[in-house]
Specification:
heterodimer; A: mainly alpha; B: mainly alpha; globular
Chain lengths: 153, 150
């Protein structure tokens, strides 16, 4: 079964509104889905419980963490198993990918939004999200220029 | 209430994970392909998210007090009047997008791809969670000092 990108996106966006309106995933507002803050909350909550540390978690994760990340891993695994698509592929430059992930987490936490969450923030009318989005567009443009420059070398 | 939040986010995450795996969606490749090839295929995910969120927010804000601050810029958004917060958001956005394009996908896409055995995404996630730890151990203290200074 193929799913259209528009449908997947629409459900994701709609969930962000439902999460706030019916489930109460706030504060902050427009926090229904984020792949920077939700993984950070789950990670920090777990570390705090195991090691007694006091790393920051958002209000909805104070007692029990938001489990969006775990859900996505389960849902994607179900789709992978159902369609027999699992195949381990070792990357050529694992350190590059490790560093990219590292930098994405650091800059994403500085921003407080991921590229999914920022769409929710923008549609919710957040000025911080709008500023972050402008920064993101500059970042994409710079990365595209870098890719073109690397290809020419 | 918190158990409800945990279970609801788990259930929604399962559906979103399934949908994103089957649709090969990504929230950063849309901009990259638009800038690089003028290709709009991946923009469908971003347009869908914007439409879904806007539909939901417009539908719900009249019926629930939990959305009384919609739209946020008209309701004294916390931190939005601080120049340092806005500068950090711009720098954060720039860095996030730059490295996401180099990583060939957003953080949600890499979580999904890791379940298919994609080694690139697995190493990305190892780096990602190391970055989370590094941020809260080191960078967050520097950010706090900068916000207090300006």
């Amino acid at each position: 079964m193929k799913v259209d990108k528009l449908t997947a996106g629409f459900f994701t966006g709609l969930w962000a509104a439902i999460a706030q309106a019916w489930v109460g995933v706030l504060p902050p507002s427009a926090f229904g889905i984020c792949f920077i803050s939700h993984p950070s909350d789950l990670f920090n909550w777990t570390v705090n419980r195991i090691f007694g540390t006091s790393f920051y978690v958002h209000d909805p994760s104070l007692d029990l963490p938001v489990l969006t990340v775990l859900g996505v891993l389960i849902g994607a695994s179900l789709a992978t198993i159902q369609h027999k698509e699992f195949k381990f592929r070792m990357p050529r430059n694992p350190l590059d990918h490790y560093l990219n992930g590292f930098m994405v987490a650091v800059f994403g936490l500085m921003l407080g939004y991921c590229s999914v969450h920022i769409i929710m923030g923008l549609t919710y009318g957040s000025l911080i999200a709008a500023t972050g989005f402008a920064g993101m567009m500059v970042g994409v443009a710079l990365a595209v220029l870098y890719i073109k420059w690397s290809a020419r070398r | 209430m918190t158990l409800t939040v945990s279970l609801a986010t788990l259930m929604a995450g399962i559906v979103i994970g399934y949908l994103w795996q089957r649709s090969r969606s990504c929230s950063i490749s849309g901009y990259r392909d638009l800038f690089l090839f003028r290709d709009t295929l991946f923009m469908r995910t971003i347009i869908g998210m914007a439409l879904g969120a806007l539909t939901g927010y417009l539908l719900f804000y009249r019926f629930t007090p939990l959305m009384s601050d919609f739209p946020l810029y008209l309701h004294n958004e916390p931190g939005a009047n601080s120049l340092s917060t806005l500068i950090l958001a711009a720098i954060g956005g720039l860095g996030y997008a730059f490295f996401s394009v180099l990583a060939e996908g957003c953080s949600l896409r890499h979580h999904v791809n890791a379940t298919t055995g994609n080694g690139m995404s697995i190493f990305y996630l190892l780096g990602f969670y190391s970055g989370v730890l590094f941020y809260w151990l080191i960078v967050s203290n520097i950010v706090d000092i900068l916000i207090r200074l300006f």
